[in-house]
Write a structure and sequence with these properties.
The complex is a heterotrimer of chains A (about 240), B (about 325) and C (about 325).
Chain A lengths: L1 E10 L2 E11 L4 E5 L6 H9 L6 E6 L2 E2 L5 H6 L2 E4 L11 H8 L8 H14 L1 H5 L10 H13 L5 E5 L7 H16 L3 E6 L2 H7 L2 E6 L2 E7 H6 L1 H8 L3
Parallel strand pairs in A: 3-8, 3-9, 6-7, 7-8
Antiparallel strand pairs in A: 1-2, 1-4, 4-5, 9-10
Chain B lengths: L1 H35 L6 H21 L7 H28 L10 H22 L4 E2 L11 E4 L2 E4 H23 L1 H11 L1 H6 L4 H27 L1 E2 L3 H16 L4 H21 L5 H15 L16
Antiparallel strand pairs in B: 1-4, 2-3
Helix pairs in contact in B: 1-5, 1-8, 1-9, 1-10, 2-3, 2-4, 2-8, 2-9, 3-8, 5-6, 5-8, 6-8, 9-10, 9-11, 10-11
Chain C lengths: L1 H20 L3 H26 L8 H14 E2 L4 E2 L2 H20 L7 H21 L20 E2 L2 E2 L3 H23 L2 H11 L1 H6 L4 H27 L9 H14 L4 H17 L7 H15 L16 H4 L5
Antiparallel strand pairs in C: 1-2, 3-4
Classes of the chains: A alpha/beta (about 240), B mainly alpha (about 325), C mainly alpha (about 325).
């Protein structure tokens, strides 16, 4: 569904991604692992067209994405749950979700309401707080809101940038359960994570990024099992 | 002392009239600042041009000796072209003078100086085409002076009521637009987190253009109202009115729409009351003093939520 | 660098020989005025160019300096101090006013700083215009006239050429001072603040003191120019110090090249001389001026003689952030 081929991306003179090649097939959960500054966020931004690759291509459902505007890319069915949530704090929960469906604003209101219901179904806590300003929510609730907001666009591919960051372990489990549910409901997911263990527990395949390069590519099970890989590339001990 | 108390109600009425105009004008500054974090220095000029357009319509009607002039249909006839033209002018200013400069480096110098240039250009363009002398609104043909009533010792004219009503409706309309509509939400989203809004599919350029249109159109309307009420307009009126309106926006909390309206009222009333006690020649000093005090002691303004990191030095 | 030194020397020679080269007294007057405005531009260059503080009310200091000279050398208060004595007083007074005006702006960011300084400029004008009742301090709209010309020993300046050399000397001093400041610790601190104030603070620079220094020194240069104006024009009026003048001076700095000393002088020369050359189009002058500012910012914001700075600003494309 999504394919990056030999992508090079630079921040000024600094290379951020070097020859990155990865694939996500429809219906999968794929995770992209790596430590700080390994290029994970840059990959997300490249897919979304926020940063343009200097070399290589990005394809989605067979068509080129690189070179398109972010709006165009989002319109094609890709949504992002950004790093650190980035909900619109000065808007209410409901308004945040409404913003999520902005790309579909020409569709009948009933459709959009249906999606909002679905989101509330996944995250009952949000329904309780639908009139509250997003800035007053807890970190975990904001994460739910960010995910819900991304879902409102009915994406076929959902990009998630470090969803576990800043959350308590119990919450992390909850969130990743929900991610699995979303996947089962039909959304393909690419998760970027530092917390390798939990990401690999729901993914089918994984890539490990190090210094902007893909260092390892394998099934999730294999990655979980290989101790030396874990230690060397994922910084765990 | 008693004669001061005697004129106080009248000054208050004047202050409210002034305040609604400042509020309308302040909305333009506050909206643009909300999405661009930039002061639209040329905003005062769209106010001035709006006043000239309104004058043109009224003068044309009077010249053509059109009978049965009544504000109910003449006023919209003056406001509509003024607002449409100034709205479009605002969009053009953003496109030509500001947009080419966004990508440039860190200095805020560029857009600000470009704005000053645009302001000077517009002022002089009007001066060259309309003459340097002031123009007079023949308001009395539209609002006979007899249309007034008394309240608590203050004489309130029908014109004043209409002015406050029109301004009030516009401000409320903008507030509803921004709070309830999809467009309003997209403006607020861009103001809060531009990149995220773009990721949601919002066309940031379009939103910015719309913001300029709305703010400038309101500024143009304020120009027509000011022309009607104070009857004298000239090509420099935008400069000082602009600075005062900016003060009002800051006073209320820059980026905050209700703040702009509140700030306008506070400034208008303060200025009006102040001139009963001090030499009227110094009334502009009142506004500047308020501005400086606000920025030093409460930079987020009356209704503001505190400066974001982008605004602190 | 050699090119610049040669040009500078050539200019200096031209400058010294100017009264011999000028075809008539009118041209002499224009050249004298260029010196005056070059001085002002150098002063604003300290605030805007070196320290990066956008002062839109710079004309206030020009006015304060002028009026102080008028107070101390005219029949207005009956005081007639010699030129040499007044100048240090002006420097001190305008420096203090610079600190007073700069102080409230210390925590403000660019746009706000600009508006506040603009406000101070306006307030100064209003005071100059209206402080003639109940006590006549400033002479109101009619200003102060019959100001004494500068005199030294028995020599009293009367012809444009004589004023010219006086102005040139002042300009020379200020130019040397600016160059010294730029290369001094103060200058480095200003540059750091201009580039990134937070980083400068982190490096241990006392930004408050540095900014106030910039305001004070810039103001004192304008004050000197003000004194020179008063002694040359033999009169001062509030309308000498309108906001438009602040913009004129700012345009000189930007056109010439923000931070570049010779550039700023060049900018002053162009902006003073151009209207003289295009006298017939006087009425379009401001229109063209406004257009010039816009066009400059779009196409050549660094001015005619840019400052060479290692690795600079405009590589936004690399940051990967979307334009509007």
């Amino acid at each position: 569904m999504l394919r990056l081929s030999a992508v090079d991306t630079f921040y000024g003179p600094i290379p951020a991604l070097k020859g990155v090649t990865l694939e996500v097939h429809a219906g999968e959960i794929v995770c992209l692992l790596g430590g700080n500054a390994s290029g994970k966020s840059t990959t997300m931004r490249t897919i979304l067209g926020i940063v343009r690759p200097h070399a290589g291509t990005v394809e989605f459902e067979g068509k080129r994405l690189d070179g398109l505007s972010t709006g165009e890319i989002v319109r094609r069915g890709i949504s992002l749950v950004p790093e650190a949530r980035r909900v619109f704090g000065r808007m209410t929960v409901w308004e945040n979700l409404a913003m999520g469906s902005f790309i579909r604003r020409k569709e009948p209101a009933a459709e959009i309401s249906r999606d909002m219901e679905r989101v509330y179904g996944l995250f009952p806590r949000l329904r309780e707080r639908s009139g509250q300003y997003a800035a007053t929510l807890s970190g975990g609730e904001q994460q739910m809101l960010a995910i819900g907001r991304a879902l409102m666009a009915r994406p076929r591919l959902l990009l998630m940038d470090e969803p576990s960051m800043g959350l308590s372990p119990a919450f992390v489990d909850q969130v990743f359960d929900i991610i699995q549910t979303i996947n089962q409901q039909g959304t393909t997911i690419l998760v970027v994570e530092q917390n390798a263990a939990v990401a690999l527990s729901i993914a089918s395949r994984g890539y490990v990024l190090q210094n902007g390069r893909i260092a390892v590519e394998d099934s999730a099970a294999a990655l979980l099992a290989a101790d030396d890989i874990r230690r060397a590339y994922l910084g765990e001990d | 002392m008693s004669d001061i108390l005697a004129i106080l109600p009248q000054q208050l009425v004047f202050g409210i009239a002034l305040g609604t105009v400042y509020g309308l004008l302040a909305l333009g500054y506050t909206m643009v600042y909300g999405v661009l974090f930039m002061i639209n220095f040329a905003h005062g000029e769209v106010f001035m041009i709006g006043a000239y357009i309104g004058w043109g319509v009224l003068a044309a009607l009077l010249d053509a000796k059109v009978g049965g002039l009544h504000p109910a249909w003449v006023l919209p006839l003056m406001l509509a072209p003024a607002m449409l033209c100034t709205g479009a002018l605002g969009v053009m200013i953003e496109r030509l003078a500001y947009r080419p400069l966004y990508v440039r480096g860190a200095t805020r110098l560029g857009p600000l100086i470009s704005a000053v240039g645009a302001s000077i250009f517009l002022q002089n363009a009007v001066m060259l085409t309309q003459g340097a002398r002031m123009k007079v609104y023949m308001t009395n043909f539209l609002f006979p002076p007899a249309w007034r009533f008394s309240l608590f010792g203050a004489s309130i004219s029908a014109l004043l009521v209409v002015m406050v009503a029109v301004a009030g409706v516009m401000m409320w309309g903008l507030h509803v637009l921004v709070q309830r509509s999809t467009l309003g939400r997209s403006i607020r989203a861009v103001a809060e987190d531009r990149e995220m809004a773009a990721i949601m599919g919002v066309s940031v350029g379009q939103v910015i253009g719309t913001t300029f249109f709305l703010g400038s159109a309101l500024g143009g309307a304020a120009g027509v109202l000011v022309g009607l009420y104070y009857t004298q307009i000239d090509f420099v009126m935008g400069y000082s009115a602009g600075l005062k309106a900016f003060t009002a926006a800051v006073l209320g909390g820059i980026g905050n729409i209700r703040g702009a309206m509140l700030g306008g009222l506070v400034l208008g009333i303060t200025e009006s009351l102040a001139v009963t006690f001090i030499n009227p020649a110094f009334k502009d000093v009142v506004a500047f003093a308020l501005l400086i005090m606000t920025l030093v002691f409460r930079p987020e303004g009356l209704l503001g939520e505190g400066l974001s990191d982008r605004e602190k030095v | 660098m050699r090119y610049q030194s040669l040009a500078a020397i050539g200019l200096a020679i031209l400058a010294l020989a100017a009264p011999l080269l000028a075809p008539n007294d009118y041209v002499m007057g224009v050249v004298t005025r260029i010196c005056l405005y070059a001085l002002l531009a150098l002063g604003l260059n300290i605030v805007v160019g070196f320290a990066g503080l956008l002062d839109l009310g710079y004309v206030a200091f020009f006015g304060i300096g002028s009026y102080i000279y008028a107070f101390l050398a005219s029949p207005h208060f009956g005081i007639h101090l010699p030129f040499i004595v007044i100048l240090p007083i002006i420097v001190a007074a305008t420096a203090v006013s610079g600190i007073l005006i700069g102080a409230p702006t210390l925590r403000l960011r660019g746009d706000y700083l600009a508006i506040v300084t603009l406000g101070f400029g306006e307030i100064t004008y209003i005071f100059l215009l209206n402080l003639d009742r109940p006590i006549n301090i400033t002479g109101g709209p009619s200003g102060i006239i019959s100001i004494d010309p500068p005199s030294l020993g028995g020599f009293v300046a009367s012809r444009n050429a004589e004023y010219y050399y006086l102005f040139l000397a002042a300009l020379g001093l200020v130019l040397v001072a600016s160059a010294r400041l730029r290369d001094s610790r103060i200058g480095w601190a200003w540059q750091a603040i201009r580039e990134d104030e937070l980083a400068a603070q982190a490096m241990g620079i006392n930004t408050t003191v540095s900014k106030l220094q910039a305001f004070a020194i810039g103001a004192s240069f304008a004050g000197i120019a003000g004194g020179l104006l008063a002694s040359w024009q033999r009169s001062v009026f509030p309308d000498n110090f309108l906001f438009q003048e602040s913009i004129n001076i700012l345009a000189m700095v930007i056109l010439g090249g923000v931070g570049n000393l010779l550039g700023v002088i060049l900018g002053a020369a162009i902006i003073v001389a151009l209207p003289e050359i295009f006298r017939d189009f006087q009425v379009y002058r401001l229109l063209a001026f406004g257009l010039l500012l816009m066009v400059l910012m779009i196409f050549r914001p660094q001015g005619l003689l840019p400052v060479s700075r290692p690795g600079r600003e405009d590589d936004e494309s690399a940051r990967g952030s979307p334009a509007a």
